[in-house]
Write the structure tokens for this entry.
Amino acid sequence: QLCTDDLNQADIQDASINYLEGYLFDPPAAREAFYAAAGMAHAAGSKIALTLSDSFCVERYRSEFQHLVENEVDLLFANEAEIKSLYQVDAFDDALQIVRQKCETAALTRSEAGSVIVRGDEVHVIEAAHVDEVVDSTGAGDMYAAGFMAGLAMSKDLKTCGQLASMAAAEVISHIGPKPETPLIELAEAKGLI
């Protein structure tokens, strides 16, 4: 039910990064809100991050998401299936080459194969953080994004942002439920990431 009336311009403009969730893109009013939020953010020098959320979302709104990514999004989060679907290619590397031309920064997750962070000619392959057992993947993508954006907010380099993201996702998949059981700041400090 997201619409432009829900937007708080002061909050959007005060944020260094505004995070848009692809799942919310379905209703026409929500799509208007995405563009309005992006306009407010960019007018204030704030960044827009988007997660594609799900391959089904991409399939429904491929051309709209392509336009959004190319014209409004500064930081894109997508998993391997989503980014390949977005650009209708079979190979991850093909999608990577396309997105690096379309968006300032992309953080692309690949499950146990880790993730790839790309910004122009800069590419970082991030190993997946070790997990003894994957218990519940609920919230993994959101935790990855949270870890990555926390790193950006602390002015960390892209590699460290990716490592923080991987660490956060690993913590949440190691137990039932989408909330961390161990404070992420403690894990990050123990790994020397902050």
Observations:
- The radius of gyration is 16 Å.
